[in-house]
Amino acid sequence: MAKLTLDDLRKLRDEKKKAMSQRNAEGKRAEVIIGMGTCGIAAGAKTVFDAFLDEMQKADITDVTIKQTGCMGLCFSEPTVEVHCKDMPTVVYGNVDDQTARRIVREHLEGKSLVSDHIFDKPSTDIIKGAGK
């Protein structure tokens, strides 16, 4: 294994700081939450997570938080991704692969347009809103 120089270590530190800043929600315009429960991971959520990070880095998007969560309860449509953007409806995307993740970055986060062929609804949202009425 090659030895790391001080410059190599500094570069690695800066890369990791940038990656970690994408998990900080303070002052961000949007939030992406990827379902990383066992069902999501088995369906490819890790690849989806990496695709989001890569595409956001390529587009130099630094004002969007990316997080992971456990199962979202939509196991039939894993991997699932929830996106919260200011001035847009909250959306849950299902059956997301790496190419769809890249589309979500380009079309939803950058272009402010929904990727409608992958939108799923949280079934419990309707039940909770209508509870007792």
Task: Describe the structure in your own words.
The structure is a single chain. This protein is an alpha+beta fold and 133 residues long. The protein has a single domain, classed as Glutaredoxin, CATH 3.40.30.10. It contains 5 helices and 5 strands. Strands 2-1-3-4-5 form a 5-stranded mixed beta sheet, covered by helices on one side. Strand 3 and strand 4 form a beta hairpin. The N and C termini lie far apart (66 Å). The mean pLDDT is 86.
Can you write the helix and strand succession as a string? Answer: HEHHEEEHEH
CATH fold name: Glutaredoxin
Indicate the percent of residues in helices. Answer: 40-55%
CATH-scheme architecture:
3-Layer(aba) Sandwich
The largest beta-sheet arranges its strands as: 2-1-3-4-5
Shape: globular
- Number of distinct helices: 5
Q: Tell me the span between the first and last alpha carbons.
A: 66 Å
Cα radius of gyration in angstroms = 17 Å
The total strand number stands at 5
Strand content: 15-25%
Largest sheet: 5 strands, mixed
List keywords for this structure.
5-stranded mixed beta sheet, 133 residues, alpha+beta, 5 helices, globular, Glutaredoxin
Outline of this structure?
With 133 residues, this protein is an alpha+beta fold. It has helices at residues 6-21, 38-43, 45-58, 98-110, 123-129, and strands at 30-35, 64-69, 81-85, 91-93, 119-120.
